[in-house]
Input
Amino acid sequence: MNYSLQKKEQYAYIDLEEAAFANDVPASFEETSRELFREGFNNLIVNMQVTKDIDANGTAILKKINRLCINDLGMLVIVTKDDDFIDLLESLKIPDLNILPTQEEAIDAVFMNNLENEFGAGEDDYDADDYDNVSESKEP
Output
């Protein structure tokens, strides 16, 4: 697999330099991703600007890596501007797969996801008992 890798505090950026996510590329991608997970990266941004095709094995690996990211409260973001490739990725029906046109938007999405997780994990200091005998108001 031809690629370059940049590791930042919040994410790992993989610049994939392959015309197709097929043959031995998905297996190499999975191995690289798993190494990144072991290092504590749960947000992966994969630049697929030059990628034009994906095979069945590539689809399975993308689904698996996407699920692993989500299970660890992270996200997998595919970066591409190729409308045909975007249509192909969307037709795969990979749940919650993020496809964005630029690296900057992908980085923003990762930061927003981290903020949502940070705020969502907090306790609201209210117990179920606090809501006893409370009904919704009928006023607008």
User: Anything to note?
Assistant: The first strand starts at residue 3 and ends at 7. The longest helix spans residues 103-120. The two ends are 59 Å apart (CA to CA).
